[in-house]
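ingest -> validate -> predict -> emit
validate: passed (alphabet ok, no gaps, 44 aa)
predict: started
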Amino acid sequence: MIERDLFGTIRLVRNWSRIGSKGHEKAEEYPTEQAAGEALEGIA
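emit:
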């Protein structure tokens, strides 16, 4: 998902896990919402 933090930074956040595990999260910062959207499309 694409989100803004409390300081207005645009972040692309990814979450994944296996059944029964704690899970993982990775967040990357981008200069614009469009750049984050393009990165998200590249992942998908």
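The first strand starts at residue 2 and ends at 4.
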